[in-house]
Every structure is written in structure tokens, then in C-alpha cells.
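Hey, does this match?
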Amino acid sequence: MASFLRRKEGLSRIYNSLLQSNPSFLLRHQPFRSFSSQPSKKCLFGIYGHRSFFKVHQVKLFRNMSTVASIGTNKEGLKLLVTAGPRAQKMVGIWLFGSAAWVFSMVVLGGVTRLTRSGLSMTDWKFSGKLPPLTDQEWLQEFEKYKQSPEYKRVNKGMSIEDFKFIYWMEYAHRMWGRALGVMFALPFSYFLRKGYITLRLGLRLSTLFALGAGQGLIGWWMVKSGLEEPASEYAQPRVSPYRLAAHLTSAFIIYCGLFWTGLSVVMPEPPVESVAWARGAAKVRRFALPVSLLVGITAISGAFVAGNDAGHAYNTFPKMGDTWIPDDIFDMKPLIRNFFENTSTVQLDHRMLATATLVSISTLWWSTRKLEIHPAVRSLIGSTFGMAALQVTLGVSTLLSYVPVSLGTAHQAGALTLLTLVILLNHTVRRPSMSLLKSLPQVVKTA
């Protein structure tokens, strides 16, 4: 009897495992229905009278046990960034997506500040920030500082105090919005660390992003400082260095991409795959998605050089540049490499060519994946990326033909970051799933 009870206990554990993995399989076989808490004749008959059943189904039995074990290993072995449960994952995810959205708004606000020529209105900078002018006397003091700058002398001479207040408030809002982001990021970060929600790997990644955010303020002042220096030519308008502007924008893009990707990794540890066929389709998309994403990023950075050289105010025609397809002066500067970053004609031509290449590559991605077996979410993302690329090109052409109004220029900059967001989401969605998940997938999706 003791031997029987030990054997019954072992079979009961097998039954529970199989019931979790495949209930319908068990319900079709009567011998497993009699595992009650007390032994019965039916149970004895089910165990000892069906030895042939165990021989026939032994392989299936242990295969199902292996499946259960692999699923458990997958859940335990998956390297989660937040391990304190679904609620903690949701909280950290909301915080990271909120921080990414804040950086997005910072980029848009920075574009407005640049387009309204407000960036050089504040001629000094403190890391901790300062209160804005609150009295007429303080406003006059700030205005006098601005009058000593090259921009006032060459561009805004005779500006009224009211016009100065407008550009000052724009730049002040941009700087303080960045500092508020630092506080908004640091406080929840400290809270989640104290609660033990954040793993070491996630903590290191977020600490790096926080350091980049702190350095962004220094890069911003480094950029502004270049615009406060006297231009080399007496006929040139004062403007910030295009190299420093590109560095400032690139840093913002890196911070945004890091936050967005990390947020996706927190809330979606595994990509959405439901079959091996969909995983194979995602792998084919992945081979194209990464080069396309790099091209989108390079095109966006080239836009910083267009802005830094005020190249949008030249050749306001499309598709030709003036009366020609390619201007004659694109290689006038020496050494040759300077033309790609400082020559107005070359910089605008580069941006046009890169934008066209981006649209063509995304169109090719969409066309080549039409018949692939892929997850509906991946197909929808590819379609959205194609639509956003077409819209972004339309915004760029409209901005150029309209001589860069603030509204269209801002929309074009926001469109660049939106397109970058979509390609990041696409790459994250088609990333390679874990081996344990792949092993548990059926070959094809079962449809009703």
C-alpha cells in the first residue's frame, strides 16, 4: 500500500503538470480522471490495468513535461529589467515613456526657440538656473547685456524691450523645461531604486541616460556661446556653430531613443510572436529595418546642419535648386570636407538626397514585406512608417517653398522625431525572441 501511495503521488504531480499545459489532452483519457485524494478501485484499475497506455503515450507524456519545464525556465530565465511584478513594470514603463515624451517636447521647443531666433537672448548661463527678471530694472539690465551681443548689433538693432522679453522668455522656458526634466527623472528613479524595482542592468543604463541629460545642458551652453562671438566676416550674421547645433540635437536624439527603447523593453520583454513562421518573417524584416533606421537618423542629423547654416532660406524651389539640379558652388570651400558641413548649397543638397533615399528605402521595405508572414502589429508599423515618411517629405518641401515659417519648420522637426520613433518601435517589435520562447511556439498560427 505504501508503494502504491508513493507511485500515486508521483503520477498526481505529472497529472497536474499536464493539466496546466494541455487540459484537453487529459480529458480524452479516462485513466487520469481517477486521481482523487483517496485510492479507489477505478483508480487502481486506471493505473495497473492500462500499462499499454503508458507505453504508447510515454513519449508524449515526457514531451509535455519538458514543455512545462521549458515554459517555467523561460519565465524565470528571461532577463527582465524590472522584476518586482507586473505592477512595478507598468509604473516604471509609464515613467520612462513620460520622460521620453518630455524629451520630445524639449526638441520641439528647441526648434521653436531656434526658428524665432530666441536662443541668443540670454548671454549667461548657470548650471542651477536662476529666476527670471521680475522688475523693470532687472529687465533693463538683461536687455543691456543683450545689446552687447553681435546678434543685437547686426540683426536686432533698435529692438524694443517688449520684443526682447518675448525672445528671452522663449529661451528661458527652454532652459527651465530641461531642468524640470532632470527633477522629473531623478525623483522617480530614486524611488524605484529604494523600492528595489530596478535591476542592476537597468540602473546602469538609466544612470548613463541621466548623465547624458545633465551633459545636455553643458552642450547647449557650449552651442549658444558660439553664437555670442563676433562672426569672422563683417557681412555675416551671427549664428551658432552648425557643428555644435548638430551635437546638441544628436545628444537629444540619443537620450530620447534610449528612454523610448528602454521603456519598450520594460513593458514588452519579448517581441510579439505567436508562431515560428511569424518569427521568421520578423527576422527578414529586421535585416531591412536596421539600415533604414540608420538612414533616418543620419537624415535627421543632416537637418541640423541645414538649420545651423540657415540653408533653408536658400534655393527655395523644388525639385530643382534654383535653375539647376546641382548648384555650381557645392565644392568651393577648401578643404573639400568643409563643404558637406558649412557650404549652404552642399548642405541643402545633401539633405534633399538623404531625404529622398530615406523615402525610397522605407517604400522598398513596405513593398518587399507585403506578402511576408508577419505579426499584424509589425505590418501595421511598416505601413505607419511609410505614411509618416511620405508626410515628412511633404512637410520638408512645404517648409522650403514657404521660406521656413515657424509653424512648418517646427512641424518638420517634430516629424523627424516621430519618424525616428516609429523605426525604433519597428526594430524593437521585430527583435529576436528568446530561445525558450522560440521552442514553445507552434509552426503556424492556429486560426479558427
About this structure: The chain has 16 helices and no strands. The longest helix spans residues 161-195.
